[in-house]
Write a structure and sequence with these properties.
Layout: E1 3-11, E2 16-21, E3 27-33, E4 38-39, E5 45-46, H1 49-64, E6 69-78, E7 83-86, H2 105-114, H3 118-125, H4 135-145, H5 147-152, E8 155-158, H6 159-168, H7 175-178, E9 185-186, E10 191-192, H8 194-198, E11 214-216, E12 225-227, E13 230-231, H9 232-243, E14 248-253, E15 257-261, H10 270-274, E16 277-281, E17 287-293, H11 295-310, H12 324-333, H13 357-380, E18 387-392, H14 398-407, E19 412-417, H15 421-429, H16 431-434, E20 445-449, E21 454-456
Parallel strand pairs: 1-6, 6-12, 6-13, 14-18, 18-19
Antiparallel strand pairs: 1-2, 2-3, 4-5, 7-8, 9-10, 11-12, 14-15, 15-17, 16-17, 19-20, 20-21
Helix pairs in contact: 9-15, 11-13, 13-14
Length: about 450
């Protein structure tokens, strides 16, 4: 008998993955692909949207040929800040412009001057001024640089919704994509910002559909439903929102360490925006306050410096065990300052001052955690958070986790591990549309940290 499954396409900037989940959210099949980038009309690298489209169709056809699976639904999670502009025939009119592309300063200045100034507009839209990373500004630029092309746009679809459109033929928008540093959404009024009306851009945005609905597939003969797709950061938060109802913060760690507080409804301040805070909308439409640090990148850079100085291999620092004695010694030797900037706190330290490489490594992580405390406090203040979850790379770092637990003695600190959180979140978002079973409560594995001990639960 065929096993009921959901197909999730998880599209990152580098890796494109496909997962099949059974009704207990076990991965029963997966594959990945990487595409060669193409370039836009200015020669800037960008996603090959045609390769992506063909790959998605081919992959799903392959799944349908597997008799052991019965596809009940399909959903998508992709990176954000990326629009596909489709014409009346539903085909893309432009390349999928890269959000790393430099944004013209004159157009940026014109935009912010026209609509109340940078401070006011970034506050209202909870979007730091990030140039092309503000996808709304990509549309504004297109209108002012290529007005004839802009007129031909029927809909501007964020990438997750374009992928959904390929299977349903129904253009739609989704709050997780609209609400993530796009500059499109007025968080004070909970609607599109007025500038989108003035510029005629609101007319190019498809109707908003809830992230927990699914639409019948366009192709006849296959009785499966299709989700509207989600922005990947929002998708990764969904398993936590399903499993934990008491207020919590999730620190998602990788190259960036992002503190996410879905229980902070306080408006952003100018100070928070200047410290790399922003808000986005989670799949149920509520704001999530977030702050960011470049800690994963800094950690990788500094362990190379430690290894070179002490003539060791960087692999050694993957599994350094927390040593409270070293921490006490380093604290007595020099009070580590909480620093509001990620700029080279450890970089300014002379490695010759440390007894050995393990002392140096503990100091590195102490410096990173001090910065993490500052960053997390930006989204923690004024809320009744009782739990702090850490997932990603630092969740497996004994020194980091113990120091974090020491820094937040009144909050329960856990490392959390889950296979493919983003894809699981996309599957969970439309659970009721395809799955007859209750949501399992063991999707996330937790380990509790206190200053002196760890307990697996």
């Amino acid at each position: 008998m065929s096993k009921p499954v959901i197909v999730v396409f998880d599209v990152g900037k580098t890796n494109k993955k496909l997962f099949l989940f059974d009704e207990d959210y076990n991965i029963v099949f997966e594959k990945s692909a990487r595409f060669i980038e193409t370039t836009d009309e200015d020669g800037f690298p960008c996603e090959n949207i045609e390769s992506l489209r063909l790959s998605v169709y081919d992959s799903l056809s392959e799944i349908f040929r597997m008799n052991e699976f019965k596809v009940k639904a399909v959903n998508f999670s992709t990176y954000g800040a990326s629009f596909v502009y489709i014409g009346d025939d539903g085909k893309p009119l432009t390349p999928l412009y890269n959000y790393l592309k430099e944004y013209p300063e004159d157009i940026s200045n014109k935009f912010y001057t026209q609509y109340g100034g940078k401070d006011q507009l970034t506050l209202q839209t909870a979007s730091p001024a990030l140039g092309s990373l503000n996808s709304g500004l990509q549309l504004y630029r297109l209108k002012h640089e290529k007005p004839e092309l802009f007129k031909r746009i029927k809909y501007a679809l964020h990438l997750p919704q374009y992928m959904s459109y390929l299977f349903t033929g129904r253009p739609c928008s989704d709050l997780t994509s609209i609400g993530c540093h796009t500059g499109l959404w007025d968080f004070e009024k909970n609607r599109y910002h007025e500038w989108t009306q003035h510029e005629g851009i609101a007319l190019k945005l498809a109707p908003i559909l809830p992230a927990n609905v699914a639409i019948p597939a366009l192709f006849p003969g296959n009785n499966y439903k299709v989700g509207v797709g989600l922005h990947d950061s929002s998708a990764a938060l969904i398993p936590y929102l399903f499993n934990f109802h008491e207020p919590f913060i999730l620190i998602s760690t990788g190259t960036w360490c992002i503190s996410l507080n879905p229980f902070n409804q306080l408006p952003l301040t100018v100070d928070q925006l200047n410290n790399d805070c922003l808000c986005y909308l989670q799949y149920q439409g509520k704001p999530v306050k977030a702050s960011r640090l470049f800690s994963g990148y800094e950690h990788e850079k500094q362990i190379k410096r430690i290894a070179a100085n002490f003539n060791t291999n960087i692999i050694k620092y993957r599994n350094v065990q927390f040593d409270p004695g070293i921490v006490s010694y380093l604290k007595v030797r020099e009070k580590s300052e909480i620093n509001s900037s990620i700029n080279n706190v450890f970089d300014n330290r002379e490695l010759s001052e440390f007894r050995n490489d393990i002392h140096a490594y503990h100091q590195l992580v102490m410096d990173l955690v001090n910065q993490q405390i500052y960053s997390t406090q930006l989204v923690l203040k004024g809320t009744k958070v009782k739990r702090l979850f850490v997932d990603g790379g630092f969740s497996k770092n004994s020194v980091y986790m113990h120091l974090l637990a020491m820094a937040f003695p009144s909050i329960e600190v856990f490392s959390a591990s889950m296979a493919q959180a983003t894809a699981v979140g996309a599957a969970l978002a439309i659970h009721k549309e395809w799955n007859r079973r209750p949501i399992p409560n063991d999707i996330i594995q937790l380990k509790y940290y206190s200053a002196s001990q760890t307990i697996s639960i």
